[in-house]
Write the structure tokens for this entry.
Amino acid sequence: MNEILKKIDSATHIVILTDDYFDAQVFGNASTFYTFLLQKHKKVSWVCKTQNIDYRLTFIPWVQDIKNSLPKSADLVISFGTLGEEYLDIECELIDFMLKTEDFFYFFKDNNIKINQKMATALYAGLLKSTDGFLSQELCGTTFAIAKELIESGADFKLCNKNIMKSVTLGTLRLKAIMFKNMLLKHDAKIALFCVSDEDIRASGATIFDAKIALEEALSLAHIEVALLLIQASDFKIKCFVSCASKVSCAKIALSFHAKAQKNSLSFIVDDITSLDKAKEIVLNSIKKEI
């Protein structure tokens, strides 16, 4: 981290770059670092490679300032999530930040950086998402100790809980009804398989973020270890989203498709295959090897 801090100190215009999906941990960490850079009086921009930011994230500090194109004057890009150099359309240095919310918290503590209300709220949002509302099997007392300190630092935990854990739209409910009605159980009911089309999503008034939330909820069903969602777009490309229980390695599944796993989830496009049945076969066979 010391080397990164040196690069930040020497940079003139820093860009915070985030993925285009619903992940409060990614956006919470990015928001926290954005505030930190402002405190250092650095010129900083926050860029997301889409304009379709999920409404559940709009309460996170500075989200309203997000732009969708990289400023040409930027000389340092800090990427939060899975974005790499292929997303850059300017010449500049790239740093990948794949740290957990807990790591950011201790970074600020260890460097005697005061966590203000905005930072505390953003970090709490990330902690809430990464622990599945403090229900994760990986929880320990340290997590609750961090949450306590963030609340004492002014984190608006009620706002975080309302938006991340409780907020829902009619479109979300309609899409969930479609998905669970047509859900298939595979491999001795260890895999929950969902297939939807772009038209299903549009007709329900939902978004792809809602589909991914339904995917994660499927892991709460008895015996389910992996939830798989295949979406066939109007151009016949097939997008795949995978969510795994903690004991299943999403990283190993990702290797089969040259994708990057983000904790217990990953997404990718099945290249050169337009048949939904063929895509099901290939992806399911890869998942079965890991469970």
In short: The longest strand covers residues 191-197.
